[in-house]
Amino acid sequence: MRYEVVLPAAGSGKRMGAGQNKLFLNLADKPILVHTLLVFEQDENCTGIWIAVKDEERPFIRSLIEKYNIVKVKGMPTGGEERQHSVHSCIKEMNAVDVVLVHDAARPFITIPKINELAEVAYEKGAAIAGVRAKDTMKVVHNGLIKATVDRESLWMVQTPQAFRYEILAEAEDLAEKAGFLGTDEAMLVERLGHDIHIVECSYENVKMTTQEDLVFGEAILKQRK
Ligand code: C5P
């Protein structure tokens, strides 16, 4: 299934504490952003890449795209205050396609087969997101006290890619903006409209580079894959 992908890359990465956009940090020999871009560049079903960027970082990102010979980038609109705004800036700029994927630029270990599975399910059923089962026992805590133990069987930690038929995500983004609704992922915006969203079991390796420990884990994944 052919698709276009939106990569929000306009965050500041404060939790990484790197003093710069964490996506520019190297994992092995390449910046995190380049690892992510290369996955989609190499997937023959990906027909276009949209990157939400900060204006002041656009020249550097452009230089990376040239250096690593990435030819599928169709646009680099200015991102926004929140991730949702960054994604929306891309959705508004792109032409309608059958399927659009949103993938955190900070998740460089996504694999092509998983991307394609998500795109297929989204095409057939409207919406599909990557996730993994919760591993630990989960508790509800208020003011430092356990209030309940949650049934782990029904708990999933969701990731990206999140894949949608384009018109579903575009409508959800527009309506969220009109209502001033801010979600933490695209699925939340689509859930508001009552659509079913299918979960596709992914891998714990599809980690988002968020804090320093994630970089250590990331280096280990790359070594093992080699
Ligand atoms: O901060 P976090 O890692 O959760 O952000 C997920 C992704 O969203 C990152 O790739 C980040 O660059 C992007 N982002 C964005 N615009 C924002 C905030 C985050 O494009 N305002």
Summarize the structure.
The protein is α/β, with parallel strands linked by helices.
The top-level CATH class is: Alpha Beta
* The named CATH superfamily: Spore Coat Polysaccharide Biosynthesis Protein SpsA, Chain A
Q: How far from one another are the termini?
A: 28 Å
User: How do the strands line up in the largest sheet?
Assistant: 5-4-1-6-10-7-11
Number of E-state strands: 11
Spatial extent as radius of gyration: 17 Å
- In terms of quaternary structure, the protein is single chain
Mean pLDDT: 97
User: Which segments are poorly predicted (pLDDT under 50) over 5 or more consecutive residues?
Assistant: none
User: In the CATH scheme, what's the topology name?
Assistant: Spore Coat Polysaccharide Biosynthesis Protein SpsA, Chain A
CATH architecture: Alpha-Beta Complex
List the bound ligands.
cytidine-5'-monophosphate
Helix content: 25-40%
Structural class, judged by helices and strands? alpha/beta
Separate helix tally: 7
- Total number of distinct structural domains: 1
Pattern of helices and strands: EEEHEHEHEHEEEEHHEH
Report the β-strand fraction as a percent range. Answer: 15-25%
Main β-sheet description: 7 strands, mixed
